[in-house]
Amino acid sequence: MKIGILSRNANLYSTRRLVESCLKHGHQVEVIDHLKCNIVIEEEKPRVYYMDHFLEGFDAIIPRIGASVTFYGTAVVRQFEMMGVFTTVKSRGLADSRDKLRSLQLLTKSGIGLPKTVFTNYSKNVESVIDSVGGVPIVIKLLEGTQGLGVVLADTKKAATSVLEAFNGLKARVIVQEFIKESDGADIRAFVVDGKVVGAMKRQGKKGEFRSNLHRGGSSQVIELSEAEEKAAIRSASALNLGIAGVDMLQSSRGPLVLEVNSSPGLEGIESATHLNIADEIIKYIERNPK
């Protein structure tokens, strides 16, 4: 098979591992910088022009689209779909997962447990927003934030009011969520491929840090999911129509609560924690879906 990996950097861990697995399985592979692709829209002949040639003969693509280039990256994925190329992450699922508000709406429609969440149009009545999620402490998240950036824990009503008023003044879109105290600064990342959890890890924030992101100094260890956690992860990926997904959950007294579904989850953290070959699972997924 001829497989394209949409990635801006061939030296990134995830990209390297996917290339290695493609070659190990006997496939032809090319790393394609999606920002250097030109989309040619022509009647009955959609094409992608890259560098100095048209991209042709591909059986599948693996999108590794960064959050900052979601719009153009999604357009490139959509063009490959129109060309009849199989993609491990569909353009609609990619776009939905990057829209924090829409993704939460889709998840809750599917009956998946979430922290209580409120979104408003720069409401001046911030006290009612705080009360709507059960009072302080609350978590305030920028809709455009990634890797723990733009996430604030407000312990008091005064602090929460100040932060919300500041964001509102900047016309920054935020969501407000209840703080799940019993999670104790930890969350779970479940890696889903083709409707199956192929690996899971528990991430613990460093002391005094409620965010568990590995990019922010957190640690990780392998974990065996409960039946409820595995079911929540698989249903979350399905709700957003994602063939590959990193589902982030909190363990709470009322069961697993999904925080976010990542459509381009990194391989380094999950492979290091679990010692599993997740890249191989992705290539096997492609092999089960021939062109």
Automatic annotation (TrEMBL):
Cofactor(s) listed in the protein's UniProt record = Mg(2+); Mn(2+)
Leader sequence segment: none
Tell me the PANTHER family matching this sequence: RIBOSOMAL PROTEIN BS6--L-GLUTAMATE LIGASE, RIBOSOMAL PROTEIN S6 MODIFICATION PROTEIN
Annotated keywords: ATP-binding, Ligase, Magnesium, Manganese, Metal-binding, Nucleotide-binding, Protein biosynthesis, Ribonucleoprotein, Ribosomal protein
Task: Report domain ATP-grasp positions.
Answer: 104-287
Q: Which organism is it from?
A: Brumimicrobium aurantiacum
Entry protein name: Probable alpha-L-glutamate ligase
Q: GO CC: one term?
A: ribosome
In the record, biological process GO terms are: SOS response; translation
Question: Mind listing the GO molecular function terms for this protein?
Answer: ATP binding; metal ion binding; ribosomal S6-glutamic acid ligase activity
What Pfam families would the database entry show? RimK, Rimk_N
Please give the family membership noted in the entry: In the C-terminal section; belongs to the RimK family.
